[in-house]
């Protein structure tokens, strides 16, 4: 039994022979929580039998139902296989977010975006790995273990939607559901050579994921799609957004020649962040040259001074009070999951002797989160700088501008190395607190066979511009490359 070819954009979307290799041979719906997870695991808990049954129902609907046009309008994603970040509720699947305290939590309902995708005809295959509490850019935790990069098993997949990036790159799924508060869609998309889109803030609902945002962070957390093919981002985004899609301009035709392109090679030299790799800079230069030669546009190089303080701005704004004076939720409270808050120093001592149920990055975050509040006046200045930067970016981009910006200072790093440069995620995080839409676009493979890529940024509600440029660059630079093909 196979999914109907007419239910997908192209038949190669769903290589059925890969099904046995996605996870365990347990019955569908059985959580993989009782034994150590192999390090190659991407899909943590599968529902393959249910998925095949739903595919049979699609076959029956196609053979007995109304015409294709009617079905396409009612079920725009009919038969399309998807995977879901484990932080989102998918009925009958685990919903731990990599937290040992939640290892027995099974979702009893669907997150809003998952429900919308299912109603549109999509067929979930299972849930995928993330970092502990979705707050680190390596997808490893004490519940499931670590997920490896399909281009090099010694490399990270990014986080926190790393399982999604990996499973898409390995051609095991077509569409992934991810969330992003500091780059958690875009970093995995970059490291795994697929497309990812962080929508304009407030368009796609975040309901039904753990942890969810509270206070000021509700303005920074975004839910969005990861896809192997650029053309799939828009239809999936439409379904995810539901009625909120009216805020976007997805029906507007985009003339690429009329877009005002801007380019920034690096953040200006932050002391907290690694210099941008030469290969990443060279890939970005090729994009600029192609745009100018092929479209006849002039790409303007810009130097936005405040971007140098991206990490400090993100950190200050993430921990600030909202308009009603509500404090941001503490990470140590989340680690306790409605129980007693975790004492990070005690957890560090336990970790040193192998007795902690938390990962080192989570413990480190718990130790450092209070440092931001030690200098209230400095924090206030950074929040003010962030608001000023938002106004500057909106004015620069306007109704027809797109910024080319590095996705990360380095290509996919080796496992554990992010702990040495923990703030490199600032290249993606800054756009969360600015609320801007960003599309992550792959640009082929580098000299080590690892994906290269670029961020495409537009002003608020101009998602249609970055999506159009991503489709254009896919044709020019090849988009996703099957691991091992080159």
From TrEMBL:
Top-rank taxon: Eukaryota
Keyword Hydrolase: yes
Matches recorded under SUPFAM superfamilies: Amidase signature (AS) enzymes (SSF75304)
Biased composition (Polar residues): 1-12
PROSITE patterns in alphabetical order: AMIDASES
Signal peptide: none
GO molecular function: hydrolase activity
InterPro entries per the UniProt record, alphabetical: Amidase_CS, Amidase_dom, AS_sf, FAAH2
Assigned keywords, A-Z: Hydrolase
Region (Disordered): 1-36
Pfam (any one): Amidase
Gene3D superfamilies for the chain: Amidase signature (AS) domain
Domain Amidase intervals: 42-467
GO CC, alphabetical: endomembrane system
The UniProt record lists the keyword Hydrolase: yes
PANTHER family referenced in this protein's UniProt entry, alphabetically: FATTY-ACID AMIDE HYDROLASE (PTHR43372), FATTY-ACID AMIDE HYDROLASE 2 (PTHR43372:SF4)
Family: Belongs to the amidase family.
Protein name (record): Fatty-acid amide hydrolase 2 isoform X1
Species whose genome carries this gene: Geospiza fortis
Lineage: Eukaryota, Metazoa, Chordata, Craniata, Vertebrata
Gene of this entry: FAAH2
